[in-house]
Specification:
about 15% strand; 2-enoyl-CoA Hydratase, Chain A, domain 1; 6-stranded mixed beta sheet; 10 helices; alpha/beta
Length: about 250
């Protein structure tokens, strides 16, 4: 089987590529767990200075694989929550390179990256309400802190699709690139960070996240309980089934 997460290492920069192009890089349980494992391993290692996350075939990710939404929920954290916790806890700087579309958790996971480079034709959508669901990824709290309450309402409640320029103006992303250049620019930023004193860099990020991390984990717990309830609702199951038929 082909790996659903590809890895590339260069001078202390670890690039993780979501590799399910036949599903528009939709995230299934195995892919969530593979990403989380690699992020935690890199964070615990002295060999890495920065992490870059991107998607294969010029497409970031279509979000959670909808087929998994039709399966009974098991106890404990979901694959998505495990990935989000690994992002929240990581002391290495994390850079996202976004081409094509980012949908659902493909957008909310970006909240936990330190830098985001996105192609100028990239599009972002958080369609939870339209799917009969509710916010996740700590977006119910964190998104308004990043982009303001009014814009967060547009993106979360209306599910309004927004482009890279709007995301930049809102402070959601760091840089807009030409199409096809997001990864190269993200890796160059990774190289810049990797050249800095690593202990000072990681300590500085840990200090910046010190008061926020407990709140984010608590918010994940709160959201996950409600999201799980919504996922089993007739409303959500009907919306997911309708979308899968398309």
């Amino acid at each position: 089987m082909n790996a659903t997460v590809l890895t590339h290492e260069n001078d202390g920069v670890l690039t993780l590529t979501i590799n399910r192009p036949e599903r528009r890089n939709a995230l299934d349980v195995a892919t969530y767990l593979a990403l989380a494992e690699k992020i935690r391993a890199a964070s615990a290692s002295k060999d890495y200075r920065a992490i870059v996350i991107t998607g294969a075939s010029n497409y970031f990710t279509a979000g959670n694989d909808l087929k998994d939404f039709q399966k009974p929920r098991t106890s404990g954290d979901s694959g998505g929550i495990i990935l989000l916790r690994s992002l929240i806890d990581c002391d290495l700087p994390i850079i996202a390179a976004v081409e094509g579309r980012a949908i659902g958790i493909g957008v909310t996971m970006l909240q936990h990256c330190d830098f985001i480079c996105a192609a100028d034709n990239a599009l972002f959508t958080i369609p939870f309400v339209a799917l009969g669901l509710c916010p996740e990824g700590a977006s119910s709290v964190l998104l308004a802190q990043i982009v303001g309450a009014r814009r967060a309402s547009d993106w979360l409640l209306r599910g309004k699709t927004f482009g890279a320029q709007e995301a930049l103006e809102a402070g959601f992303i760091t840089q807009v690139t030409n199409p096809g250049q997001a990864l190269a620019i993200a890796q160059a930023l990774g190289d810049e960070l990797a050249a800095l004193p690593p202990q000072a860099l990681q300590l500085s990020k840990r200090m910046m996240k010190h008061t926020q991390r407990p709140m984010l984990h608590e918010t994940l717990n709160y959201e996950f309980g409600l999201f799980s309830e919504r996922l089993q609702s007739e409303e959500a199951q009907a919306a997911v089934a309708k979308l899968l038929k398309k």
